[in-house]
Amino acid sequence: MKHVQTVVREAAPAGPGVRRLVLADPDGWPLPKAKPGAHIDLYLPGGLVRAYSLCGDPAQADRYVVAVKRETAGRGGSAFVHDALAVGDALGVSLPRCTLPLAPDAAEHVFVAGGIGVTPFLPMALAAERAGTPWRLHLLHRDAPPLPDALAPLVETGRAVLHDTARAPRPALASLLGPAAPGRHAYCCGPAGMIADFEAATTDWPAGAAHVEHFVPPPLAPDPAACPFTLVLARSGREAALPAGAPLLPAIRALGAAVEASCEGGICGACRVRWLEGPPLHRDRVLSPAERERDLMACVAGCAGPRLVLDL
Ligand code: FES
Hints:
It comes from Craurococcus roseus. Keywords: 2Fe-2S, Flavoprotein, Iron, Iron-sulfur, Metal-binding, Oxidoreductase. The chain is of the alpha/beta class. The chain has helices at residues 77-83, 121-131, 148-157, 173-177, 192-201, 248-254, 289-292; strands spanning 3-13, 18-24, 39-43, 49-53, 64-69, 90-94, 108-114, 135-141, 160-164, 184-190, 210-214, 229-233, 239-242, 272-277, 280-281, 295-297, 302-303, 307-310. It contains seven helices and 18 strands. Bound molecules: FE2/S2 (inorganic) cluster. FE2/S2 (inorganic) cluster binds at residues 261-264, 266-271, 284, 297, 299.
């Protein structure tokens, strides 16, 4: 597993309940490159691993910028970032992963965000601007928006529009997105209710034209297609007999292989593993149909056959 050691260079409030961190290499070297829309895991005390979208300028190779919203119902990760993490502290992070890339063939991008869900769209909007691809950002928020300094220049251009739902009725997402059109790609990052509305508003759009990023893993029901199977790790030759629906991650680790994990709910892309024999049951929200022909997300995948062979 490749980790990156960083140091906190800046930490400052950035909107209500939000703390913005600038992380850098301790010696000032460029950090591993990140695509616009990528996120990183922060490795926090107590074994907590938390994913945050990068929200800085992707052209600035010497820093990762994240914005952390305080979650009062969380398990302490955001509270640590807000209350204990200080400028000068060391912080391990993962390599960047991008599960919400800009569609390379898009003629137009429409971004819809809820609150702190705006973070991945800030670098994506900058990249679209530099590529000369038209874009529009709609941010739905209550009262003051997050990251006001980063948003202000985008709002000034007229391409980013803020919708304060504390002062005006919440707009219908279909009206913000407009109809499906050749080359138009739509993206959504926000709470579960907003993503459900977005998926309903884009149900008639062409396959691959609507993209979402979840905040929290959606609940997963047991899959009736799951059956008992033998898990085989091809490189070590180790194997284990597992009951139907058994989680893969602990089984893989018990067989001595290391697989990274973050969300453990199929939304972050950390635990991607190549499969060689299946068929696997895919229950993640990150892999495309073409990617599923080759890879699975070990935190939520299962098996619909007698053997699952992984390239581990
Ligand atoms: S740990 Fe996030 S997708 Fe598996």
